[in-house]
Amino acid sequence: MSQTSTAPAPTGSSAPAPRRGERARRLPNWSPWAVFLGAAAVVGVLWPVFDLNIALFVLYTVVLGTLAVYLLTRTVEGPRRATDRLVTCLVVSAFGLAMVPLVSLVWEVVSRGAARLDGEFFNSSLVGIVGEGGGAYHAIMGTLIITALTTLISVPIGLMTAIFLVEYARGRLKRAITFLVDVMTGIPSIVAGLFAYALFAIFFGPGIRLGVMGAIALSVLMIPVVVRSAEEVLKLVPNELREASYALGVPKWRTIVKVVIPTSIAGLGTGVTLAIARVVGETAPLLITLGITNATNLDAFDGRMATLPVYAYYQLTQPGVPPQFATDRAWTAALVLIILVMGLNVVARLISRFFAPKTGR
Amino acid sequence: MSSTRTTPPSPAGTGRSVRRPGDRVFAGTAKGAGILILVILAGVAAFLVVEAVPALTAPAEDIPGGGGLASYIAPLVFGTLLAAVIALLVATPLAVAISLFIGYYAPRRIAQGLGYLVDLLAAIPSIVYGFWGIFWLAPKLVPFYQWLERDLGFIPLFAGPASTTGRTMLTTGLVLAVMILPIISAISREVFLQVPSLHREAALALGATRWEMIRMAVLPYGRSGVIGGAMLGLGRALGETMAVAIVLSVSGGITFNLISSGNPSTIAANIALEFPESSGIDINTLIASGLALFVITLAVNMLARAIVNRRADFSGAN
């Protein structure tokens, strides 16, 4: 809006007369809003006639308003400004459209999931539960254990790879690893699961389900994320710090451990937290490597384990005879999952805000 | 490691630093981690191939469906590509518009917050998208599909009969579109922000309107970035599993009919649905289809990265 209102007054004196007249004709800044209000009123009047619902009301209002703004601007200000206004309307509507899934999804999950967000959900497993009650204690514990195990595998490998890429690697090997890490971020999660299954099936025979298999599958997904974020952060450490350390005769590895990593610790923490948030909601690889169980199994090296996303999936797709109770549990599991992921995102932001290195004054 | 060895200005210093055990161990560990990445990627391919071999060599009647591996995988590949292409066609224009809105239309003060909102879409687990798709989106689309069948039924895509549950290929494509929206918009936003401000100011100084400035200065500069982002989104849509497994109602083979309840499955969703109840040669067949998915996504991602990196080279030269 602001740019259309900047009146090109100084050029007016030297410009030919007809163009000056054309430029002077401007719609006031509030005119698009007024047009859209008018469109809403017109569609609102037509509501009973065409039996509209809220979605169609918004749709018709936006279409009608956009058309009206375009035609009005075209007659008053000319085709160029009309196209500009048209694109503005389209771009704003596109953003509005993208917010629909986000808002409806969060609303849906919260309103449906709140019903079973009680103590029993967090305290009991599904052993001996038919119908009402029961909880996801076993699934929540499983998710925590698998995620911790995944982090334990991924962070050292990812961090050391990032250090290698930033501090040591040169030439073709560096290019190859950087490229392959990028490619690895695109591995479909189900393929990572199949890889872990194939790996263990070769050594332990077919039909194997273990917690650690899930952790390995998730590591395949998490390592590239850790490498990418850690690499970006390590690159930001100023070279002066490294050189100052070398000048004092500090060996390279101690420079990295004592200077580079402490300087970038906030960014590393943020990156690792976001990487955890990325894998904690993964379902597909866990579905085929861990399976599901109703009992609590806390040993990642012995048999099937339940995890929250897989639990939600099975509660939804195989709900049992009165489906309502299992469906409720599924929604609550989805809600807990979203809270977990959003919480991790918030933690990541807090880490980057509070642990950022103090800049020199 | 090479840098400590190839810096000969002070012989005494380098001689000592090379022999430091700490340095050698640390550098070796770092290098080992880097090489481990290569090993993992090669391992993924190798183990999938090893487990897929029994299905590749098995007689045709042993494969589920009885028609051999190719006729088992073909409809899955078709379904995967169809869903991903729908998602891409819907998401790309929307993502470009969103990044333009955040970069050039929204008030500067709230633009970053709006960008964070869009990124939140990426943080939501895919299974929750499946829940949302089957309980919220699909029922809401049923009247729309009935309208499509009634008024646009002459187009083969909307031939119907319209699904009464809304669990159609088009719904699946729309859910996938929402899921890849943040990926494409994040990358487009990044490249749009890198457009030199001199280009934009020059266009505005010549009297261009905001849209003309975007068309002349921003879009040509960001084109390859948008293409690369769209291909990364395509890679994600191809491999998306749970949302498709929950939303899509599967029965029947290859069809372009987007609004009926008989749809081909996708590779990933088919694996998720069949794997827990499978054993023996069925497992090998599923792994073979997973290998096909791996190869497809690998090709798409490599192409996407090559495009994005080429653009990065250009912008470095500017």
TrEMBL record, chain A:
Any Pfam family from its record, for instance, is BPD_transp_1
Task: Please indicate which superkingdom the organism of origin belongs to.
Answer: Bacteria
Annotated region described as Disordered, given as residue ranges: 1-22
Mostly located where?
A: membrane
State a single Gene Ontology molecular function. phosphate transmembrane transporter activity
> Where is this protein localized, as stated in its record?
Cell membrane
What CDD domains does the record point to?
TM_PBP2
Name the Gene3D superfamilies for this protein: MetI-like
Question: Which biological processes are named by the entry's GO terms?
Answer: phosphate ion transmembrane transport
Cite the ABC transmembrane type-1 domain residue spans from the record.
140-348
Keywords, sorted A to Z: Cell membrane, Membrane, Phosphate transport, Transmembrane, Transmembrane helix, Transport
State which residue ranges cross the membrane.
30-48, 54-73, 85-107, 136-165, 177-204, 210-227, 259-280, 330-351
Q: Which residues are the signal sequence here?
A: none
Q: Mind naming one GO cellular-component term on file for this protein?
A: plasma membrane
How this chain sits in the membrane, per its record, is:
Multi-pass membrane protein
Q: Where is the composition biased (Low complexity)?
A: 1-18
Q: Read off the InterPro entries from this record.
A: MetI-like, MetI-like_sf, Phosphate_PstA, Phosphate_transprt_permease
Q: Which family does it belong to?
A: Belongs to the binding-protein-dependent transport system permease family. CysTW subfamily.
Q: Which NCBIfam families match?
A: 3a0107s02c (TIGR00974)
Task of the protein: Part of the binding-protein-dependent transport system for phosphate; probably responsible for the translocation of the substrate across the membrane.
Would you tell me the protein name for this molecule?
Phosphate transport system permease protein PstA
Q: Which organism is it from?
A: Geodermatophilus siccatus
From TrEMBL, chain B:
**ABC transmembrane type-1 domain residues:** 77-304
Q: Which residues cross the membrane?
A: 25-49, 69-102, 114-138, 168-187, 241-259, 283-304
A GO BP entry is: phosphate ion transport
Where, subcellularly, is it found?
Cell membrane
Q: A GO molecular function for this record?
A: phosphate transmembrane transporter activity
UniProt topology in membrane: Multi-pass membrane protein
UniProt entry keywords in alphabetical sequence: Cell membrane, Membrane, Phosphate transport, Transmembrane, Transmembrane helix, Transport
Q: Where is this region: Disordered?
A: 1-21
Decide whether keyword Transmembrane helix is in the record: yes
Gene Ontology cellular component?
plasma membrane
Cross-referenced Pfam families, in alphabetical order?
A: BPD_transp_1
Spell out the PANTHER family in the cross-references. PHOSPHATE TRANSPORT SYSTEM PERMEASE PROTEIN PST (PTHR30425), PHOSPHATE TRANSPORT SYSTEM PERMEASE PROTEIN PSTC (PTHR30425:SF1)
The family annotation for this protein states: Belongs to the binding-protein-dependent transport system permease family. CysTW subfamily.
**Function according to Swiss-Prot or TrEMBL:** Part of the binding-protein-dependent transport system for phosphate; probably responsible for the translocation of the substrate across the membrane.
Name listed for the protein in its UniProt record: Phosphate transport system permease protein
Give the originating organism.
Answer: Geodermatophilus siccatus
